[in-house]
Amino acid sequence: MNEIFAQYCNNRHDMARKWKQETGKKVYGYFCCMSPEEILFAADILPVRITGTGEPLQKADLHVPPNSCPFARSCLDAGMQGHYDYLDGVVVPNSCDIIFSMEYLWKTLVKRPNPPSMVGGIDLKPYVHYINYPEKINSRGVLPFYKEVLSIFKQELERGNNRLITDEDMSRAITAYNDDKFQLKRLYEMRKTDPPAVSGFEAWQAVYASILMPKDQHAALLKESLDEIEKTGRKAEEGVRIYLSGSAMDRVNADIIKVIEECGGQVVTDDLCVGTRSFWYPISTELPPLEAIARRSLGTACPRSTVKERIPENRWAHIVNTIKGYDVEGAIFYVLKCCDARLGEYPHLRDKIKEEMGLPSLFLEGDYTAEGVEQMRGRVEAFIEMIGG
Amino acid sequence: MSQEKEVKTKGSKKSLQTARNTFKFIVEDYLQGHAHKQEGKPVVWSCALAEKELFYAMGLHPYYPENYAAVCATQRKNRDPSAEKEAVRFAKIAEQAGYSADLCGYQRVATGYIMNDDLTDAPLGGMPAPDLMVTTSSVCDVRLKWFEDMAQRLNVPLFTLDRPERVFNDIRRHPMPHEVKYYKSILEDYMSFVTDVTGIRYDEDRLRECMEWSYKTNEVRLEILDLRKAVPSPMGCADGFATMYPGMYCSGTEKAYNYYKELRDEVKAKVLAGEGIIQNEKFRLMWYGIPLWFNMGIFNYFEDIGGVFAYEPAYNPSPWPQSTGDDPLTELAIRSLYTGTSMSSGMSSILEQCREYHINGAVLAFLLTCRPVYLPALETKRILEKELGIPSVMIECDLVDERSYSEAQVKTRMDAFAEQILGQLEAKKEVA
Amino acid sequence: MPFYAGIDVGAQSIKVVVFDGEKILGARIVVTEDEANRAAQRIYEDLLGELKLSGSDVEKIYVTGWGADDVLFADGKSSEQVCAAKGARFLIPTARTILDMGAEGSRVMKLSADGILEEFVNNSKCASGTGSFIELGAVYLQVPIEQMGPLSLSADGSADVSSTCAVFAESVIISNIHKGEPLERIAAGIHKSAATRVSELLGRIGKVDDVVFVGGPAKNRGLVRILEEMSGVSFKIPDNPQIVVALGAALQASTKQKRKRRKGAT
């Protein structure tokens, strides 16, 4: 859809290094879509999401067991190999058990660019920042708590970079993020038609690029592309309309979207953290900036979180929001090994999607390798043929 | 019909009388709960690390599906030796319904158990149906999702105690005000939740009373831990794991306190008499992780060659902050936030414990389906070797599902490990 | 009258069926290690010759199976799951659940009351619930594969050959032989082990009667019996279970058009 998006998707490290060299600014890495990247942006830092390589591990296998999350292991391995040597800081939220452990693993095993400055047992310029993200995201006391967590994080950034982050900085960041969310939402709207205006893989590329490059630049490029598509009225290939639900979808896993397309399907919407969950809900401009950012982060429908409702329903509201209007014909669950939250909710979601929407589901267990994705082709083919007639 | 290979697993030989009495304690606790339910009083299903005083203070009798899964790992239907273990029977039911075999063994067993329709068709007559469920965010994500899933299946209201997952070093151990405030708000929400569901009101005095019992219990348990540092080891892992139930699951009751008082007296007498688990103690091992509940006999494996399992980090109490005289909910919040579950805190404490308990080697239970246990396993192994020169061996298995257990493989590894440690001790002697 | 052909390129053998829109005119099953496209072409042409037909009599050829992509002369392709379902339903119109056991993979399909494929499950990558697992056992026991079923039926019990993994099961078979276990008991154990995996698949999909068993292993009486015992079903087995998937492909050739949109969820 856009050459620059493809460059970021395929050469993310070179692109980030180039950006850093050209601007002289800092780059921070973060895990998971609930991370408060807006605050980094407000501090004039480029936030980039940390992803893996899909290659056989070279270093991390001595430290993280083989049956644990292949995505997280690969991320750590990339860090240990120096792929992320341009990062000035790393943000680890308390998302799942595995990412939580990155607080220790990244800090202990990945070489940091500058030495710690310890005072009284506390590192004044931490390389790894831990965000104590709550697990019950809507309880009565959660907002004041989480605002304080973010305020501490903001102070760490200010101290570490000798730069105050003002409310104006924060509002500027919120505007840039909302602009990008608006364009991404527009992109997803354009997939409601049959055939969709944009293919599943192109859409994924656009979302993936958005977590690797400056949001303002991304929003402008995406707007340009979407305007163009609207003007020419071009359409993607017709295909069986698929809802894709799954674990972290980076350059390695995203090949599953290509396989689906090659088998006659078309991913039209999703429940992915490199997908709807990273942009679906805008940030409030009415509230004080820190609170608005806290609310956005808490509103991320991560499968690992829970809610205060008496009988929680596995993020059902988000699933309905992202399926509604897309004329979906089938759901594909692509879940990585060890992704316990997703594995645990799958039987329920499969049944509920069947009962309430009449949609069949296909379950695929991913191992985070290109070969693994290829081995799924037969089942994807059968599933799409089953739906398509 | 038994379709799986026979696994030669067995119960452990415990050295302490109190430990041998624990199963009776558990059975009585189960029976009391059934009686409680029959009187029309509410039953809660919960899990380790939820604060047990919260249940007793509100007149709830707690059951623990995770502990029940461990019970199922030791029992066969109708005690028929040709039947598969109940844990395996239940795990299969869950797997058939689409729950991945890679999911936590506790979850699969308990899920299969509730999907089996008849809750009484199970060991000890099963757990009474819950009126409410309470889980905690502490330690693992599985217990959030697993309890959500059970709440949906059984249509029972659920409350999650969301405890901030803190990362701290010694200096920062004391929780920060916003953390205390948040967790206290959660505890208050819990109280209103229970009142809404059961009509029972929060009684501050009653909670304080329960907390006094748990403080006293914790103190005795810490004394026992201290006694266990003695050489020769007066109380090993077989006894340690066997005696965890009252502390983990009945904390806040007088009966739990009495139980540990008795245990402490027994251990103390052994230490004074210089009596160990075995006659001629040559080396001391640490068991890292949760045990293989279907094969507790493994703790006696090295005894004939002078090896004892002297210490296990799991389930043990840690020192609590001084009682502040604040309202009990604030106090409880502060106390709970003292527990560190991050890998950072885990690594530093394990090194300290290996020194204190004079550990020569570690057996790491590599529990294939338990993320918080297997995730730090390789780092633990590396750090023990690097910092203290302590060798370790890993045993791969599920915690309750014995289908993934290979007797031959475990034996080979354990034997090689024993040789390695004895060789090291021999070499040290020569140097000396 | 137009004719249609279906070709099923399996991991071990190629099956070809020629169909006239109502009945099977002829079928061939050939075990081959030859390159798929060439082998399929030869077998197909041989069958046409036998039926005294020429290539131009056949309106459409559909291909399915493990090596389907290698067959270049076909007009279309359909998945094994869909073909097995179509073929079985054609032969046994009351079919609701279809177990298809092949050399390298097993799968179970569930159909709605009016015959629409609704769900399918595959065995995991592991080979222990497949036909080749039993063949491997036959090699170790030095027994012809056709004899494996009858041999197991003559046993008074079964040796322990269970394992979640075919690779480990091999070593268990060998150690049983060394221990001097009677061959029939080992054969029974091998069948039981394979049946355990397959019965899990049937359990996972929540089988509905009638359950039809297709694929080569459906001819193995020993396997059928233990599977029926274990999963509590009574299978319906077509006369020639090996060609059912190829027949399904021929049916697809005779009916398949451009897809019609099903009503999606809104």
Determine the mean pLDDT of chain B: 91
Q: Largest sheet of chain B at a glance?
A: 4 strands, parallel
Shape of chain B: globular
Strand proportion of chain B: 5-15%
| Total count of helical runs of at least 4 residues of chain B | 17
| Largest sheet entry of chain A | 4 strands, parallel
The ordered H/E elements of chain B are: HHEHEHHHEHEHHHHHEEHHEHHEH
Largest interface: A-B, 56 and 59 residues
Shape descriptor of chain A reads globular
What is the share of helical residues of chain B?
40-55%
Strand line-up of the largest beta sheet of chain A: 2-1-3-6
Q: Work out the helix count of chain A.
A: 15
Q: Domains counted in the coordinates of chain B: how many?
A: 1
Radius of gyration of chain A: 20 Å
Total strands of chain A: 10
Query: Numbering strands along the chain, what is their spatial order in the largest sheet of chain B?
Result: 2-1-3-4
| Structural class by SSE content of chain A | alpha/beta
What are the main properties of this structure?
heterotrimer; A: 389 residues; alpha/beta; 15 helices; 48% helix; B: 432 residues; 4-stranded parallel β-sheet; 17 helices; 8 strands
